[in-house]
User: Fold this.
Amino acid sequence: MYQIENEHFNIKKISIRDLEPVKVVTPFQDATMGPFFKFGITLITIEDNEGNIGEAPIYSSYTNILERCLFPILFNNPTMPYRELYYQMYWSIRNEGFKGPASALLGQVDIALHDLDARRKDIPLYKYIGGTSNTVKMYGSGGGTNYTYQQLENEIGLFCDAGIDCYKMKVGKGFGNQLKEDIDRVKFVRTLIGPDIKLAVDANQIWTGTQALKFLDAIGEDGLEWFEEPIHSASYEQIEELAKQTSVVLAYGESDRTSKIFPTLVNSGVRHLQPVPTQIGGIKEWMEVRDLAQQNGLEFSSGGYSLYSSFLITSAPENARVEYLYSIMHGLEKYFSAGITWKNGRFILPEISGLPVRINWDYCLGKVVSEKVWNKCDVRPYVPAVSI
Assistant:
């Protein structure tokens, strides 16, 4: 296992490029968002003075935070070990808040810098962080609230052929107001997957505790592997009350941007933790949640841009899973020159340096819809953003 804490980064250039959105496999909708007909990705590329690069998915809507907080520190401290560099970047976003996009941006930059260091050491990132195997368990994710029964059947057939042992579908149709349809769809999916494949559901926070219990009463608790975000992710008292009234495993964490929140979730009765690597404040914070889950005997999984972040799951216990939202994510694979294969319910990571997927920028010529570039001379010295 390599230690990034003592590494130095003499950064020469940073660019952010938005790639043209691609058509999704099946138009996708959940409880409160969609339908999505296309889906895109934005990449940050960080280049050091020796020409080594690191990349990661990033938000493109908050460049003011990058320019005001993170980039001035990153460009102007080439002799500072990373443990101090990260510390300074972390506290630079204090007044932006640790629960929002600023924390996610820090985590995205952190992944790109890990990628850069793994590439310049010519080692896969999963080995860099201490992973011992290049395969991880995955679960099928989809079942949009807008899917027809035929579309549900088609998607489940694809996942079953790929060897999954768990399928997650969306519920809470029509902003949570079509409960009977949700119940009927779940019962239909159960007939399709049979007894050997586990079923999870995701309500994307739309229901009250009363509605969630009504749903569980109708479908039965025994057949659910987990119930993801049944009620608002910030309603800890309501989450705790629901956890006391059901034996179903409650899953939370995708909406949280800092590891500091997760002990509160555990204390509220959540038994499945789901930090998203590209949405939390760095790899170390993600690992803190991983360790918290292990220490408390909880289930653990991660999603987001799962092809990118799957390397982290290699450092988790064997039963940890990575989500694959095939309908949305599959189209992006045409942008990769190297990537993950999918077999027997597992992702198999390639033995390439850095992240397990690599953008084919030659192929992407003409598909970059916007680009912004920063050199050291373009970024003013760091001044704390003060708000009173």
